[in-house]
Design brief:
Two copies of one chain form a homodimer. Chain A contains 20 helices and ten strands. With about 600 residues, the first copy, chain A, is of the alpha+beta class. The first copy, chain A, folds into four domains: about 150 residues, Acyl-CoA dehydrogenase/oxidase, N-terminal domain (Butyryl-Coa Dehydrogenase, subunit A, domain 1, Orthogonal Bundle); about 120 residues, Butyryl-CoA Dehydrogenase, subunit A, domain 2; about 150 residues, Butyryl-CoA Dehydrogenase, subunit A, domain 3, CATH 1.20.140; about 130 residues. The longest helix of chain A has about 40 residues. The termini of chain A are far apart. The interface between A and B is large, with 94 and 94 residues.
Chain lengths: ~600, ~600
């Protein structure tokens, strides 16, 4: 670990993926038969090396130099084009994409490691990369064979990049308000006309072509989201002719300056060709089908920022000496020995590992929902659908907060550009906004996920959360799980409470404290997934302890023992010092105060 | 109000100062006999105009252009030198300084308005200005008559600026570790030698001279804080000879880029003259005496950032349309009509007004402690001493959070440099760090303020918080106060609980959750001061209501009525939707989990 660089915590990733989620077992599924645990370990190592050696070194420059427009085209920061080439050639864009067109077909629960570590090493670079994966995946899922042949292989390998063109200047969160038009021509292609805003990597110099996946409206289509279609709109057409797409400008932003955020004008000269994906008016449905992957990726930005922050802060606190501590009363002590600093670090560590437990489990749900035993697929899809808005909103809010605390641990130098934390927090801020604001995620959670299929998702969750009910737990874990169960009860009561408020006060009343419910369920879920880790860690710890004479002896210079010990201490902290946030959110939900609706606007 | 500019909310300030704190009554005190309420209103207006017309227009440029070093000296952004001149000439540096050397002698409860509005208009400019006021005040309080004559008038008027030189590269929070040396010469001056880091406005081109107030150690002085002395070290000596002070570099920072943060080297050529303030070894004591003013000023940075953020966000939410709302089901509605946006805005407003109530009351305590009836002065000093760490730490943490929510309200554009919020939050970040990190404020609160004078400060607070116990309250206010009393009880129980933990677990255990206590007491105090405002607002509202036929009629286009109505809704929100945070902090304190102390470092 380092206070100024990003190094992957390989031990933690191994623990989460192999020891807790037992990724090896996933190889028993037919779709993953060609993998084994050894290969997974290799992938973890390669992914870590790629993040550390290719992406991390150009992170700071991505921010300082940023992107610029020259002769109507975006120039990316030094080193970005070369890293992009390595990203494509290394197969990192297509880790979890199907093998058919050169993808790697790696299970999500393993691919997520690449995604987290790349993002942690360089948010500005990686946000653009993940859009290419997303766009390629849409073409793979909904394109014709010809379209797949034309686009997938090149996009999977990074020769061509991709974007998602949804937002327009007047239509941000309300995607249904899109007015960009698509008019069918006799030979089957469409002419696109409109302006798209906030297009991540909308133009750049890292690839030979850029393939825009663009939402537009055909003439006389239905109003709102039901009249929207999805088009493939390449920057350069397949015959080599430049398409009629103009880069109007790039945004000047708080962070992710390595990623050009573009305003694009399509069809200024009435010659922008687009190719319909599947059929007209399917746009929203298609987007929805791949939304879980996209939202998990944004959630991972929060986890990634947090994971970089906690290691920077932890290491700084070990290096920096200042005044005496209770451990070193006579002399200058490292600030990590001060109680308030320890509390901050432990909070950062607990939240980060909680988010990782949450999101890696969501990745595992994805695998099980798509490749698991047929009978279980619906269950895992339900769990995934419920987890996704939490990964996205709770993940990015908490990730930002972890970086904030990290700056606090560093003190004055944390505010300077000599340390990476001030960039980390600026880069992260966008994650709570794009891919559906966190407010919209909260509405998705309570307004959609709680209610679809007659509340089936919640029932599935309730069953999943009964995991510990009939298990024999030992020692301190017993008390932790008992305490967590109290909060599980608070969650269930709060959900009931919201329903009653909705019945009494209507839809606006029901939605008013959706964000509190988001935070509440986020804490209960993160802690749940951590407690499952605790069971594993406790077994390993106990085994190690049984062959030595004392705990102190075991902890002395034994890094494995220290890992399990700290893992247990971290989860203990989540239970007793973070979970209480649940009480605040539950009380606010219960109070159901309507003053925001009654105030004069 | 505006989504892109800062405009002072004059109505709110009038309400807080004149209607609630009854500033007019302060003129009955002999020291303020020359003032009256009309003059206060005039000052509020002039301060507002200065902030809006002089400081706000150069705020963005201060960030974009920033400071640079040319020929070994700092060049400030365009417009800063001119604004500094107006600041000095207008008497804004010396609002609350004594009249003797050209100060204005304005009561703190009025001066605080100038300080808040200047900071809200331009944090980068104002942080430097407030250091000049602080340095001048130190000389006024502890300097000899000759020193006061030499320095005070010029500093009060801004011809000369001031700095505080405390931090050294190896001594940040631990001021006692300072090693800069001061060696007495035969003629009485001292030779200063050492390096000072993070010196706000340590060099610049806005004034004819810069007067450093510098902490140093005389030969053979006692170790730690008891051996530190305070020196006046001017950039240019009184005889016009440049002193031996070298600007080494300026920091590259996340925010407040309009303020040069300097690394200064004193006495490289053994010719840096310093002049002792009062006597040797008094440095820490002198700093402590003026620490309350300094820490309140930093707290005000949080309030100021919050107040700018809430108006930017509120106005944007009224301008921006997006999808249908329950109020406008058929068409595009302003996003302020959506419940989640309303909740965010109300949260921002409630926290901002809570912080203002807290800090303006602290300013009023300052006046009463220094100028009030002799018999009451100790009481007000006690209340002030307890409030100050809360103003500083709770104020800056919450101010940052309000700006964070503001960006969320704006969505994508909030992340761009087209709107002022992304600069606001970057500028604010430093406030939780300097002038004693917020962690140190929490230790000051529980380790010092709770325990000094045998716990007398807490007893005084408890008495003050019994304010509502025998009052006749009407209508909804009755229920709000009753609810707040529950949280008051939680506060008192939590304080007891911490004491017991300290007895059982020692000092580190006692201090571990100090920051939770800070947040807990912050909410209880802010809400207390808001409820006092509620009593006033309710009376005015009821009076207005009594002469019309309905509430709806009253609210129609009557801005005064809307003000009181919204003030009441805001306080209602604090009681039912923010105060519950108290439960989380109380439970965490009670759990007293020691895992951060038990983890391996």
């Amino acid at each position: 670990m380092s206070s100024t660089e990003y190094l992957v915590d390989r031990r933690e990733l191994q623990f989460v993926v192999n020891e807790t989620l037992q990724a090896g077992k996933i190889c028993e599924l037919p779709d993953f038969a060609e993998f084994d645990e050894e290969m997974f370990t290799m992938i973890i190592n390669e992914a870590s090396t790629f993040a550390e050696q290719v992406l991390a070194p150009i992170n700071q420059n991505g921010d300082r130099q940023g992107c610029r427009v020259e002769n109507g085209a975006v120039v990316t920061p030094d080193g970005f084009a070369d890293a992009w080439k390595k990203l494509g050639e290394g197969g990192w864009l297509s880790m979890s994409l199907p093998t058919e067109y050169g993808g790697q077909g790696i299970p999500e629960v393993i691919a997520v490691i690449g995604k987290e570590t790349q993002m942690a090493a360089n948010q500005g670079f990686t946000v653009g990369a993940s859009l290419t994966t997303g766009a390629a995946n849409l073409i793979y899922n909904f394109g014709s064979d010809v379209q797949k042949n034309d686009f997938c292989r090149k996009m999977f390998g990074g020769e061509w990049a991709g974007t998602m063109c949804l937002t327009e200047p007047h239509a941000g969160s309300a995607v249904g308000d899109v007015i960009t038009s698509a008019t069918r021509q006799e030979d089957g292609h469409y002419l696109i006309k409109g302006t798209k805003q906030f297009i991540t990597n909308g133009d750049h110099d890292m690839s030979d072509n850029i393939v825009h996946l663009l939402l537009a409206r055909t003439p006389d289509s239905q109003q709102g989201t039901k009249g929207i279609s999805l088009f493939i709109v390449p920057k350069i057409r397949l015959d080599g002719v430049p398409n009629d797409i103009k880069l109007v400008s790039i945004e000047h932003k708080m962070g992710i300056n390595g990623s050009p955020t573009c305003l694009l004008s399509f069809g200024d000269n009435d010659d922008c060709h687009g190719y319909l994906l599947e059929a007209e008016n399917m746009g929203m449905e298609q987007m929805f089908k791949l939304m879980n992957e996209a939202r998990l990726l944004v959630g991972l930005q929060g986890l990634a920022g947090a994971s970089a922050a906690v290691q920077n802060a932890w290491d700084y606190a070990k290096e920096r000496t200042q005044g005496p501590s209770s451990i070193h009363p006579g002399k200058k002590a490292p600030i990590i020995e001060f109680p308030d600093v320890r509390r901050m670090l432990m909070h950062m560590k607990a939240v980060t590992e909680g988010l990782r437990a949450l999101m890696y489990t969501a990745a595992w749900y994805t695998d099980m929902a798509n490749h698991g035993p047929e009978d279980d697929r619906e269950k895992y899809q339900d769990l995934l659908d419920l987890h996704i808005p939490v990964c996205k909103a709770f993940g990015t809010d908490q990730g930002f907060d972890v970086a904030r605390i990290g700056i606090q641990v560093l003190g004055g130098v944390g505010f300077t550009k000599d340390f990476p934390l001030e960039q980390n927090i600026r880069d992260q801020k966008i994650a709570s906004i794009y891919e559906g604001t966190n407010g919209i995620q909260a509405l998705d959670l309570v307004g959609r996920k709680f209610t679809v299929k007659n509340g089936q998702l919640l029932k599935t969750l309730e069953e999943e959360l009964s995991w510990f009910d009939n298990r024999n737990l030992e020692g301190e874990l017993n008390g932790w799980v008992a305490e967590w169960k109290n909060y599980r009860a608070v969650l269930m009561e709060s959900i009931d409470c919201m329903k009653k408020i909705g019945e009494a006060k209507g839809q606006d009343g029901y939605l008013l404290y959706a964000s509190n419910m988001m935070e509440l369920i986020g804490d209960v879920l993160c802690c749940f997934h951590l407690l499952k880790q605790a069971e594993t860690a406790q077994q390993k710890w106990n085994t190690m302890l049984s062959v030595v004479s004392s705990q102190d002896e075991l902890l002395e210079e034994n890094e494995e023992a220290q890992f399990y010990w700290n893992k247990l201490r971290t989860i203990e902290f989540y239970v007793w010092s973070i979970l209480p946030r649940t009480l605040s959110n539950a009380k606010t939900i219960k109070n159901a105060n309507l003053s925001p609706l009654n105030a004069c606007l």
